[in-house]
Amino acid sequence: MYKQCPVPEGNDGFCYLHTNGDLIFQRFGPEEDSDLVRRIWPIDLKSRGHAWVLCIEALAMGAKRARVMELAEKWGISDSDAPEFAKRAHLSLSRDGNQWCAGFNHFQNVLKSQGGFGATALEAFAELAREGLLEKELWYSNVRYR
């Protein structure tokens, strides 16, 4: 049984995460439940926030890394864009040596706060998502980034 994110007004189609890790784009929406679909994201091609959310959650849920990185490059998801996304999503983002560190706004340090690390900001956000961001669905609705 899959979980679908809220459908935005400017919906341009849907991206499915298949159980084999493939990310599949289709113009039409889901018709019924499928055991082969892990998650469905509605796509608004004008929303940077939706692009970030899809890439973060798909990577966190085990989508094939090469496909996520291909979409990230196509949509301009980059380390230079990440601080703006973090600000709008009410998350923290900083460098720690050669790694990015992502956390919630109340992040203090790795001993006291939940955080995610990665070679890229996207990977750090995805690691944070593995640790519980996906369980806090309210953060998704707060992202306003076009």
Q: What do you see in this structure?
A:
The protein is α+β, with helices and mostly antiparallel strands. The protein has one domain (3-141). It has 5 helices and 7 strands. It has helices spanning 48-60, 65-75, 82-88, 121-130, 138-141; strands spanning 3-4, 13-18, 23-26, 37-43, 91-96, 99-104, 115-118. Strands 1-4-2-3 form a 4-stranded mixed β-sheet, covered by helices on one side. Helix 1 runs antiparallel to helix 2 (65-75) and helix 1 (48-60) packs across helix 4. The N and C termini lie far apart (31 Å).
> What is the oligomeric state here?
single chain
Shape: globular
Tell me the number of structural domains: 1
Give the topology string: H per helix, E per strand.
EEEEHHHEEEHH
Q: What is the terminal-to-terminal distance?
A: 31 Å
Give a topology summary.
Blueprint: E1 3-4, E2 13-18, E3 23-26, E4 37-43, H1 48-60, H2 65-75, H3 82-88, E5 91-96, E6 99-104, E7 115-118, H4 121-130, H5 138-141
Parallel strand pairs: 1-4
Antiparallel strand pairs: 2-3, 2-4, 5-6, 6-7
Helix pairs in contact: 1-2, 1-4
Question: Top keywords for this entry?
Answer:
single chain, 146 residues, alpha+beta, 4-stranded mixed β-sheet, 3-stranded antiparallel β-sheet, 7 strands, 31% helix, globular, disordered N terminus
